[in-house]
Description:
Blueprint: E1 2-12, H1 18-28, E2 32-37, E3 42-49, H2 50-62, E4 69-78, E5 86-88, H3 111-117, H4 161-168, E6 189-192, E7 198-200, H5 205-216, E8 221-224, E9 229-234, H6 238-248, E10 256-258, H7 262-268, E11 269-270, H8 273-279, E12 286-291, E13 307-311, H9 316-325, E14 329-333, H10 345-352, E15 358-362, E16 374-378, E17 381-386, E18 395-408, E19 418-427, H11 437-454, E20 460-464, H12 470-486, E21 490-494, H13 496-508, E22 514-524, E23 530-539, E24 542-549, E25 552-553, H14 559-562, H15 564-574, H16 579-584, H17 592-602, E26 610-611, H18 614-624, H19 636-644, E27 663-665, H20 668-680, H21 684-710, E28 714-718, H22 725-737, E29 741-743, H23 755-767
Helix pairs in contact: 5-9, 13-23, 15-18, 18-19, 20-21, 21-22
Amino acid sequence: MLVRRVIEVEGTVQGVGFRPYVHRLATARQLHGSVRNDAARVIIDIEGELAPITAFCHDLTVAPPPLSTIARLHVAPAAPMRRTAFRILPSAHEPGVLGVSAVPPDVATCDACVDELFDPANRRYGHAFIACTDCGPRYTGVFGVPYDRERTHMAPYAMCAVCRAEYDNASNRRFHAESIACPDCGPVLVARRTNGTITHDAHGSTAVARAAATIRAGGIVAVKALGGFHLACSATDSVAVERLRMRKHRLAKPFAVMVRDVASAQALCEISQVELTALTSSARPVVLLVARAHSHIAASVAPHVGTLGVMLPSTPLHHLLLAAVDGPVVMTSGNRSDEPVIITDGEADRALGDVADLFLTHDRAIAARCDDSVVRAIDGAVRTVRRARGYAPDTVTLPFPAPVCVLAVGGHLKNTVCVAYGRFAHLSAHLGDLGSHAARKAQRMAIDGISRLVGVTPSVIAHDVHPEYASTHLAEVLALEIAAREGTIQRVAVQHHHAHVAACVAEYGIRQPVIGVVFDGAGLGTDGAIWGGEFLIVDGARFSRRGHLAYVPLPGGDAAARTPWRSAAAHVSRAGLSNAAAARARPTSIGTSDWRLVQQILSGTAHAPLTSSVGRLFDAVASLTGVCHVSRFEGEAAMALEAVAGSRDASAYPVHLSNDDCFTVSSESIIAAVLQDATRGRSVADIAAAFHASLTDLIVLGAERIRESTGITTVVLSGGVFANARLSATTEIALRHRKFRVCTPQRVPCNDGGLALGQAYVAACALQEEPCA
Length: 773
């Protein structure tokens, strides 16, 4: 008997070869009808005998295309139309319809395309823009939905007859691949000097050869990639690396290194199976690996951190360039420090003209700014450090639906933005710190872009409670703009550490109260102090503070984050140690006047904000042990202290919790023991190991104290300090040993890159008539 079904499929189902897959599946079972995209979903209209349609629906759900994710599938009967073929129809463009994930993340070049890329007999040999249904640009190439060529960066390039034939051929892997192109009809690759001298040819091989020669000769090349420019130089040439640091104004922060293949990566680093899986995944992130002791990578690539960020080529252009260079290449964001990655040639000329010796670029536009993702394996699981290319804007499924559209604007550092509606939260790619005008402009562009793709105007804007964050100011501006157009808009201020915990709660779909342990550098607390060593109970839109690191003064305010010796002086002063001990805390490099000023502040003659920050405690110990007195980038002191720590079996320094309802954890005994050990000549490795063990002990003690009074057994660990692999792993093991369920962010960063998701979740909870628990 002839039957007909109309099937609506939501999820990551556009730009992943879903329509060609449906076409092949239907024709193989001799079913008729059509498949098309709209702004929200894929719609399949299919008819035939009941048994093959049932089998079709089964295959659709249990074995969808590898890059797809089905979030919802709805099947409805309809009257048969007695069609005689199955077709892919033009997309229906319906503005204002929210898609679950209208556009998937970018996908690294697949093995089949790489084989063609290096096959001299293939017509796409050496073509820097080779792609197929299974790989290529997605998010960074889409200007609107539904996902069709006319709304991508390929719209200006009319397909040649051969490409059109492949596009229309259901048996070809480029069947309805919107990024299809070849040397005869695709973008043009060029190499040009800053003085305008241009080198190019149809295949781009001359341009790639020129760029490779520049790198081998010690030069710097600006490479236009998927989501923005890279800056590249030889990773084995210390002079080239130092030159790049000087020109980019990035004095010490580690650079990422791109290598041609897995064997090259294994020659540089120790790689576990979990790390190998991440390294070779379709996201092709930068993976933080333990560097081998005697690799030929220049020491200045990643000084004093013990790890090396390594990635494999993610685009055909990178494959060609790495093959031509035949050696590891520094591949870092194409920007000046503290500014967003550059996406246009005009911006690159203005900002990188005195940085790069050569530009390897092309005429294909970049629709969305998207830096490289960074991940790290901790305790056998991959954790996202920076969520961008290959991961964004994939959605997070919320524990319950947001009843209206919520826009969350994130924090001030490592900014991301998030749009949540229904059960799904769309988190943007990493945008960076908002200290510059360019960064704030990029944030506004990201909000406009993700809002355009999602297609719904926000009814609520969520932001941090800090009134001076650039993101908070933007929330105020956006609220006024939307109110002028729509008439109403609600703003929800979310406390910083509440948002950290909430992001992890949203990721795991937790629906009950949790103990949140949040260790980071800084976030404004409800009492006006700078929090950063917090024990919270979080229940949806509500939280309570149940413990924290005891306050110490922060001499110089934000300046203390850049000068760990100030934090050392503050912690030694608060510990009440002798003047002789305090004097030993002064580095020889610190001048008398600076030291006296800090001592005056600590004596109470000048104001200093109070902080409970574990980040500043890390700074203090790093300075007291001589590891780092001045941080040249955020987190340098803590990273260096982690890198030098010795045996994980080290005994902890004593820690004590007060008996208050909101307990405090004093750092005085830790600081006194660290200073005493340093004075006696104990090794820095042993002191750092003992310090890490102490933090694990205090977390366990705090969690057990809260469990005793509340019965809560789930602990969330979040905040930037938990990017520390040693601390995170040992703490999780210790908590699990004591029968806690432990949740740490994985898909979303534990640092401020996850705040936007947490803000969106808290705002959505606040909109519910009843508490979410």
